[in-house]
Amino acid sequence: MMGRKLTSAGYARLKEELADLREAGRKRALERVKDARKFCDFREDVTYTEAVREQERIEAKIVELERLLADAVIVETGRPDVVAFGSQVVIREIPNGDEETYRLVGELEADLAEGTISVTSPLGNGLMGCVVGQSVSIDSPGGTLDFEIVHIER
Question: How many Cα atoms within 13 Å fall on the side-chain side of residue 132?
Fold first, then answer.
């Protein structure tokens, strides 16, 4: 199976999340189960059932992250003057001049609120391979949007 593409920063964040789940997450879940066990009738106790389900969710997430990290492909960008995976790009919307900054990442890392977009999104895909000063048209559900590449950073 081909691994998921991640930036080195994204890989580090996932490793950190995994370490937190292994240590603090497991500990919190176990404490919740122990506390609920003290006061419950195991056949019908909702608190105990929810505590056990939370513990199961944490264990499932740990397994998911372990598999993902074991199979991940860390992509390092090449030329600094061309938009590529991992690039941070400042774009200017044409004609209104609004500027936006995005880092192009894999689907797993994409979070618009954090300023990251997937290279497989229409905008991310359209920006790939562009250089500073280049204009690009992106088809979106709301119509075609035109942008100019203002700055590229690694």
Answer: 10
| Interacting residues of 49 by C-beta distance below 8 A, sequence separation 6+ | none
Angle between helices 46-71 and 26-38 (to 10 degrees): 160
Which residues touch 76 (CB under 8 Å, ≥6 apart)?
A: 8, 86
The answer to whether 15 and 74 are in contact (CB under 8 A) is: no
According to DSSP, residue 59 is labeled H
DSSP 8-state assignment for residue 75: P
3-state secondary structure of 50: helix
Distance CA 146, CA 5 (A): 28
Q: What is the band of 1 on the pLDDT scale with cuts at 50, 70, 90?
A: very low
pLDDT grade for 77, boundaries at 50, 70 and 90: low
pTM (global) more than 0.90: no
